[in-house]
Write a structure and sequence with these properties.
single chain, binds zinc ion, 435 residues, six-stranded mixed sheet, alpha+beta
């Protein structure tokens, strides 16, 4: 087999994936991931793998392949990336979001950041290594999933429920969101590796009161009761709770930035982090934001019921406290049910796999400092963690100092520098040598 060059291939792979529409509106109505899955499976088959395409529903396709390592008796490593992307409004974009155009040194399009970039990097590095006959030291399972952007019902959750056997022996996982650089100065960069994720509690609140004429006295007005509860939740000042990951992040980062760190006033430190403050600020505490409110149908009719939705996010280890607080804020007359509920995850930032990530970064960027952080959202890692895997967000990219990368997730003009993709391929290659 002719040796393939991952660095040369990666931008083209990313462009091709962006051009395949795999938008996921969350209601199972879109094009699905089938075409993207076939593309990925084809690229893997070309280098001798036997990928399986697994459909959870019509056109909701996942791809799984196993690379046999030099020592298959060791625990396996999972590399995972999702194939779907969130919808877009093309009119807002400089280059069409499905164009995959390469301009100003970047690949542009929906998924360039989240996360067809990493899908392309995985493909590029695997294709190069296998074309050169270089196997990883242990088994590596590749998973390209459907439906991550809507909670993984047709993707990772389904795979974890129905196809456990494909992940046999996997104890560790690498996926999104992390591994990208944040510049400290010319010479030094932080690389944020995700080691924890907040849990998710999307809740529907309901109050059943007494319907009646709007002109009469009514002490059981559902709208009044609900509005008060929503107000209490929205205004609640959640206490700062420093998890192990956040503590390590703040300690390492403030050392590197020469900031004074007072762990009793973590917010003051976070406020000094510039664009990172938005991302890190939400990981200091549980949060609950009212997001929807419905009730009533006529100005002079008091309705029987009123409902609201709240987007709650809890830190690893603080789920019980979260629900206890929510229930106190709701009071006795408001009922809550889940629209969506998923776990928080956290793993220690230590051990050989963490060293392999940090070493690979350092070898390609002598100014690299790997630090763990907590993602305030969720990824497929939650589903895979149910199979007993610890996981990290590690899609390595060395980025220009002025690129607001974290701001481009689900944003307009998503783009990734070609040089950053090439860097990512080199880092992942070293990482796979050392994993
Ligand atoms: Zn993503």
């Amino acid at each position: 087999m002719t040796a393939l060059n991952g660095e040369d291939e990666v931008a083209g792979l990313c462009r091709d994936l962006i051009r395949i529409d795999s938008t996921n509106a969350g209601d199972n109505s879109g094009p699905g991931e089938r075409a993207a899955a076939e593309y990925v499976a084809g690229k893997l088959a070309e280098v001798g793998l036997e990928p399986q395409i697994l459909e959870s529903d019509s056109r909701r396709a996942n791809v799984i392949a196993r690379i046999e390592g030099e020592d298959s008796s060791r625990d396996a490593l999972l590399l995972h990336g999702h194939l779907d992307v969130v919808p877009f409004d093309a009119g807002d974009w400089t280059h069409h979001p499905l164009g995959g155009e390469i301009a100003d040194g970047c690949v542009w399009g929906r998924g360039a950041v989240d996360m067809k970039n990493m899908d392309a990097m995985i493909l590029a590095v695997v294709r190069q290594r296998l074309s050169e006959g270089r196997r990883p030291p242990r088994d590596v399972v590749l998973a390209f999933t459907a439906d991550e952007e809507a909670g993984g019902t047709y993707g990772a959750q389904w795979l974890a429920d129905k196809h456990k056997d494909l992940f046999d022996g996997c104890t560790e996982a690498i996926g999104e969101v992390g591994g990208f650089s944040v510049s400290i100065d010319e010479a030094r960069r932080l690389y944020l590796i995700e080691a924890a994720e907040k849990g998710i509690a999307w809740m529907r609140l309901t109050v059943s009161g007494r319907a009646g004429h709007g002109s009469m006295l009514n002490g059981e007005n559902a709208i009044t009761e609900l509005a008060e509860a929503v107000g209490r939740i929205g205004r609640y000042d959640w206490p700062v709770r420093l998890t192990q990951t956040v503590r390590t992040f703040l300690t390492e980062t403030s050392k590197a930035l020469e900031l004074e760190l007072d762990l009793d006033d973590a917010e003051a430190t976070v406020a000094k982090l510039g664009p990172l403050a938005r991302m890190i600020g939400a990981t200091l505490r549980n949060t609950a934001n009212p997001t929807m409110l419905q009730g009533g149908y006529k100005a002079n009719v008091i309705p029987q019921t009123a409902t609201a939705h709240v987007d709650g996010r809890f830190l690893p280890g603080y789920e019980d406290e979260f629900f206890q607080t929510i229930d106190e804020l709701l009071g006795p007359n408001v009922t809550r049910e889940f629209v969506y509920h998923d776990i928080a995850v956290e793993t220690g930032f230590d051990g050989p796999l963490v060293r392999a990530m940090a070493d690979a970064l350092l070898a390609e960027d002598p100014g690299a400092l790997a630090v763990p952080y907590t993602l305030s959202g969720g990824t497929d890692l939650k589903a895979f963690s149910r199979l007993g895997m610890r996981g990290f967000g590690f899609a390595p990219l060395k980025l220009p100092a002025d690129l607001d990368f974290s701001g481009m997730f689900h944003g307009v003009d998503e783009r990734v520098p070609v040089d950053s993709l090439r860097f990512g391929v080199r880092v992942l290659d070293r990482f796979l040598d050392g994993c």
